Amino acid sequence: MPQSPDDLDAVAVRTWCSLALEALGRERAAIDAINVYPVADGDTGTNLYLTVESAAAAVEAVFAAHETGSTVPDPADAMRAMAHGALIGARGNSGTILAQLLRGMASVLSESGDAHHLRAALAEAAATARLAVAHPVEGTVLTVATAAAGAAGAADPGAGLTDVVEAAYEGARAALAATPGQLAVLGRAGVVDAGGQGLVTVLGALLEAVGGRAQERAVRPAPDVLPLTGDCADAGPDGGPAFEVIYLLEATDDAVARLRSRLDGLGDSLVVVGGDGLWNVHVHVDDAGAAVEAGVEAGRPYRIRITHFAADRGSAHREPAQRAVVVVVPGDGLSGLCTEAGATTVLARPGEPPASGELVDAIRRAHAREVVLLPNDAQLRHTAAAAAEQARTEGIRVALVPTRAAVQGIAALAVHEPGRSFDEDVVAMTSAAGATRYAELAVAERQSWTMAGICQAGDILGLIDGDVAVIGEDVSGTARTVLDRMLSAGGELVTLILGEDVPDALADELSEHVREGYLAVDTVVYRGGHQAAPLLIGVE
Predict the structure, then answer these.
(1) How does pLDDT run across 37-74, given as a tens digit for each residue?
(2) How many Å apart are CA 287 and CA 437, to the nearest integer?
């Protein structure tokens, strides 16, 4: 058993991560089994394990950076790494809340890891976690976190670090035992809150790490039958939303405030955690595409994960309906490509975006009971939504995936499988589109201000995710710069779509540039035909 430290130093943080991961690994299945709130999807233990696994990996990376020296990492660096790792790896409702709890602790423990600061850290963690949840509910992990902070604060003023952690642990255990009496769904199932149980496990690991006794392992067993059958329709308890949507988001505080308001109107179980420009967004909704689109409007969402609750409960056994995909394409070359893939296409001529009536006609031409609509242009969002609504009044089931560029549409079409359920297909296509960054090259028509500076008529503009990021003198050099900027954030596949007048030599040059600079990245090239942009780029 480790010797009791006076401060939570970097080694203790590392040990805490390791012990928490080990404990959650042992109890993962048992915590999954008691997961009945907010959705009885049986994955809370797994999500918490994956969240802490990411946190532990981040701490190990900090220690690895010090291997060549004789010093250990600064405690503040270790704690911040743990919190950041949890943030970027958070899974599910409880994992997202745990990430915020750790972030709250790190904001205080970065000053000192003594007993006094630990009390304050636990209080800050509980407070910030509540603020991150749109509609806090008692009898959940939030209640357990608040009780842990209260018990730590009530400990003897002269108590040492271990005594404060033990007080927090015991307070959390007592609060966990009371959760069935606070939340009706837990009482009916005869279980404690799964997220709260996970937090008790994590606090028990902290107690063990600072030299206290090993935690008691007493996950209450689940009853023989939980409401996890296909009869649960399309969601969680009381007919709730059908999808869980999670993504990381790069955005400003103001944009996130607007995002919270919009997502709160779309669904429930909304948790937005993070800060300093990086956020983890979690929400349960019926319209997964709208939740992703809201993130796109707020900033840059990535690592998008969408889970269809009914799909996890047996929807794959449903008979698939006749289905089609309608795609808006910017050039006749892509029109042929998408038609070969089985899609119905609508050609968007330069300067002439299709009207809603054209999209409705295309949906009708598809002759399908279920249609996935890919507008491939941010400016067509409202037009496409109107067309989808009109088609629905005619009895056609339409899902609008908010693709903002042709390369996102190609990525979505690539994973389309008409043999699986409609909802699962839409989830896969939305995820593929959301994971694809897009860019295009354009020729400046006049002198103007841009986000990259002042451009002159005739300059080549490189637009990344809709904003001018590069101003160049020629297509080749601008394209290489755009590719380097996009691939600096990672990627596995580059898609190049060449305009009608662009020579094949450019594709060869850019493919070679990617091959030499990014060994693990593949490149595919398509001819777009007559399109407004000389070059479209996608990075998945």
Answers:
(1) 888 777 888 889 889 988 998 998 888 887 765 678 88
(2) 21
Contact 370, 395 (CB under 8 A): no
Burial of 299 (0-12, 13-18, 19+ CB in 10 A): buried
Report the relative pairing of strands 437-443 and 460-464 from DSSP bridges: antiparallel
Q: Is the peptide bond before 38 cis (omega within 30 degrees of 0)?
A: yes
Report the predicted TM-score, pTM, of the whole model to 2 decimal places: 0.64
Gyration radius from the chain CA atoms:
26
Please list, in sequence order, all residues whose beta carbon lies within 8 angstroms of the beta carbon of residue 271, skipping any fewer than 6 positions away.
Answer: 93, 96, 97, 100, 132, 133, 134, 281, 282, 283
Pick from 23, 165, 132, 17: which is nearest to 82 by CA?
Answer: 17
39 phi/psi in degrees, rounded to 5: -135, 135
Closest CA to 314 of 236, 397, 231, 376: 231
**121: Cβ contacts below 8 Å, ≥ 6 apart:** 104, 105, 106, 107, 108, 109
Tokens representing residue 72 in the block: 């250990």
Strand-pair partners of 250: 278, 300
Q: What confidence tens digit (pLDDT) does each residue in 384-437 have?
A: 888 888 888 888 899 999 999 999 999 999 999 988 899 899 999 999 999 999
Element (H, E) at 297: helix 288-298
Strands 243-250 and 278-285, sheet pairing: antiparallel
363-401: b (≥16 Cβ within 10 Å) or e: bbebebebbbbbbbbeebbebbbebbebbeeeebebbbb
